[in-house]
Design a protein that fits this description.
single chain, about 450 residues, mainly alpha, about 75% helix, globular, transmembrane helix, membrane
Length: about 450
């Protein structure tokens, strides 16, 4: 590891922390939609893998920390991961304790990161000897994973039924490209379809507005007023172990450990399951909200980081919702990375440790301090001066550009079709994890099951 690479990793981590602090505070931002295209662009630009990994880890830590801020100060989720925390954030907001809510969540995030990094590295080392066996059966594992996530979702039957036609859509587009010679038969489009799934809800919402009857049926709302409570200044660097009391601390550590061992599960699903379970017997609503916010935030961080590091280091195939979702470009980004040769094969263990340590330390050190001290001011600035539509438009445009690079104009419309279908399925209540798993299992489903 050279000094130049270390400096590049630090610079990338700082850049990710600054950029995703703004993105994370913006309400309604999907983690996958804002992480995956940028990561893919960095990989395709030829940025050293260890630098890309440091950037990604810093971005994950920053994004999952900052997207919880609007929960406390405005009662709206910054991203999908923060959605389960909204009711508890509103409880503290109504009690005039928004500042306390921010500090509980930020401290929970810090502890979740501190737990997840070493535990994930140890688990990755333990699972590494099984990598060849798991990789050999990755296709049916993806299919089983899709079924498993479908069974865990609220709309079980609909989710299971959607697997097979969605697989046919994916494979049908691929064979169309090959049949009209838009792509050579040795090239397979995967990453573009994956990006189409990530922007599905946004594209479907935009397309729906073109329907005049639907548009006229929508409620007409004026300007939404958001009240942001002014926070007192934080002196010095806050200690997360002192911000949380004993019950909150133990709850956060426990859920963070559980998140590491359930890395193959949906982070949102685990946040709801463990977070709600750990506060189910707490009667006082204020105490319940504080414990829930701290433990849920810690769990979100640990599940996310474990879902990235364990498949990346131990397996080399994306066998978790995080790996299939936002971290997909680290596993599969032709021509730089393929499922047979990706970051798992390029980096050694010291490289993973360096990148993870630098990314998590920089992301956590900068963002934790900034959020604890300036969360109210940042949220006020973003809500007032940065349109949410502009952020979404930026990432949709980036996805369209990458789709053109992947397969030309026909692939742009193919990705648009995938986005519309996945958006419609999402609107019906189908988990995105089911669609991501189906994307990777599609060749096996079509050739083996049909």
């Amino acid at each position: 590891m050279t000094i130049q690479l270390v400096l590049e990793m630090i610079a990338a981590a700082v850049l990710a922390a600054g950029f995703y602090t703004i993105i994370g505070v913006a309400p309604g931002t999907d983690e996958t939609a804002v992480l995956a295209p940028v990561t893919l662009a960095l990989v395709l630009l030829g940025v050293p893998p260890v630098v890309v990994l440091a950037f990604f880890v810093s971005a994950v830590v920053t994004l999952n920390l900052t997207d919880a801020v609007p929960v406390a100060v405005a009662g709206t989720p910054g991203g999908v991961m923060a959605s389960p925390m909204v009711p508890y954030g509103l409880t503290l907001k109504q009690a005039g304790q928004s500042v306390i809510g921010i500090r509980k969540m930020a401290s929970g995030a810090a502890i979740g990161t501190l737990v997840a990094v070493p535990v994930s590295l140890l688990l990755a080392g333990a699972l590494a000897p099984l990598s060849e066996v798991i990789t050999k059966y990755s296709a049916p594992v993806f299919f089983v994973g899709a079924l498993f996530l479908a069974l865990l979702s609220k709309n079980r039957l609909l989710s299971i039924l959607a697997i097979f036609p969605f697989a046919l859509l994916i494979e049908g587009l691929r064979y169309l490209y090959w049949g009209i010679h838009a792509l050579p038969t040795d090239k397979t489009v995967t990453i573009s379809f994956f990006l189409g799934i990530t922007i599905g809800p946004m594209v479907f919402s935009i397309i729906s507005l073109l329907n005049k009857e639907y548009r006229e049926s929508l409620p007409k709302l004026g300007k939404k007023e958001i009240t942001i409570v002014r926070s007192e200044n934080q002196k010095g660097f806050p200690n997360p172990f002192r911000v949380l009391d004993r019950k909150e601390l133990w709850a956060t550590v426990s859920t963070s450990l559980a998140g590491c061992f359930t890395f193959f599960m949906s982070p949102v699903g685990m946040t709801v399951l463990f977070g709600e379970g750990i506060v189910s017997r707490v009667k006082d609503p204020i105490k319940k909200a504080k414990i829930a916010l701290a433990s849920m935030e810690g769990l979100a961080h640990s599940t996310y980081l474990a879902g990235l590091l364990i498949p990346l280091i131990a397996l080399g195939v994306p066998l978790s919702p995080v790996a299939i979702g936002p971290a997909n470009a680290l596993f599969n980004a032709p021509p730089v990375f393929t499922l047979g040769r990706n970051m798992h094969h390029v980096l050694d263990m010291p490289g993973f440790i360096w990148a993870t340590a630098i990314g998590s330390i920089v992301g956590l050190g900068l963002t934790y301090y900034v959020i604890m001290k300036y969360s109210g001011q940042i949220c006020r600035f973003v809500f007032k001066y940065i349109p949410h539509e502009a952020i979404l438009g930026l990432f949709i445009a980036l996805v369209m550009m990458l789709s053109y690079m992947d397969g030309g104009w026909i692939n742009v419309f193919g990705v648009l079709l995938v986005a519309i279908v996945s958006g419609a399925l999402s609107r019906l209540g189908i988990n995105f994890g089911v669609l991501f798993m189906t994307l990777y299992a599609a060749p096996w489903i079509v050739t083996v099951l049909f």
